[in-house]
Description:
The protein is mostly helical. The protein has 18 helices and no strands.
Amino acid sequence: xxxxxxKLRLQRRFTFATDLLIPSRLRANAQQAIPFWxxxxxxxxxxxxxxxxxxxxxxxxxxxxxxxxxxxxxxTPFCFLLAWLVVVKLSPNAKGSGIxxxxxAIDLATPKHEDKIGRLLSLRIAAVKILSSxxxxxxxxxxxxxxxxxxxxxxxxxxxxxWIPKTWARLSDQSFVLTGAAAGLAAAFNTPLGGIVFAxxxxxxxHVRHFRxxxxxxxxxxxxxxxxxxxxxxxxxxxxxxxxxxxxFLGVIATAIAAGLLGSLMCKAILVVMRWKxxxxxxxxxxxxxxxxxxxxxxxxFVHPAVLGSGKVLMNQLLFTSDKAAGWDTALLRVAGxxxxxxxxxxxxxxxxxLAAGASIGGWLSSLFDVxxxxxxxxxxxxxxxxxTGVTRTPFTSAILVLEMTDRHSVIFHLMVAALVxxxxxLLIDKHSLYExxxxxxxxxxxxxxxEPVAN
Length: 456
């Protein structure tokens, strides 16, 4: 009789010991929870590294332009082209935001199609996502890291789920991917409630009560890990919103309508450009990328540098300086930037750029209505909520995110009104969000492709 391998003997004895010493219910709960905790810890660490890398790219660009401003006409087209090449050559499904890919993976997380999830979530995709978005930011691309962080987190949770021993009690692929997305958003923005609400409002196709403890603990662990390295920071600090006039509600409604309509129109424009360039060959795509880079460079050099990057600098300027006014040209550039950059085919999200676009709309309307101080800050915050709602169609997530970013609980009702009004306004342009539209394409592509090994 052949001798039993040492590894198998050790595993069998360990299983026997745990079965003997630990009650079955407690053991099952631990086996379900431990993988979530491990994945959450990794997500928190990756989110911290990604945040620092993003900041490094923005600092390098800032110093480069301070040295010689004209270099932007060389750096931006080159970086746009390089960021696209990284995605095309290494992992095509790492392009864009990452949220549609996560939504598609959740839809595919069924016994019939679960083998296709690896085409949308993997360690290779996560690495390419980070590299491509870093290059885009280095070139001044109007992108954010929040959407990519969600796909990266979903990939980490999916891989950890695959590594769970077959003898362990486990939850579904859907629950792991969804929880990973929530943990990713919570760690990226330091907004735990926003992560949970986003998971329920945008991603959930199953009842979360079956894994709510895992969802909450994953968000807490990922968030605390990020805070351990970055500190208990607020994404946007503490803007002044005291002494508001009751009549400001009229401004809130007007800002919400404008921001919701423009957010939805931006998404519509992104999809129109995507359809237009769908059949481009390599030569036309390269030409489009170079011209896109030159367009962004020219806008930053000749009009306003606010078009560059995620827009966080612009948001801080509007909220925390006495200059609350933003010109119509700044608002237009912040809306146009993501349309151009998203269509490069490189990695990069639209969450933070949407907030910046909304802030610029709020600032412009503040100057138009001759509103200053706290009242102007409120319109800026409502513009952020409204524009993000127009893009994502998740009004409660948008309101909660901006609330947590600023810790301004006194204006929660203003933000919720802005979210609901902008959501209704956005429906006039399109009944579906940008993510929902893009998700369908990823699902269809995955179902068309034949099953083949996926690199992790």
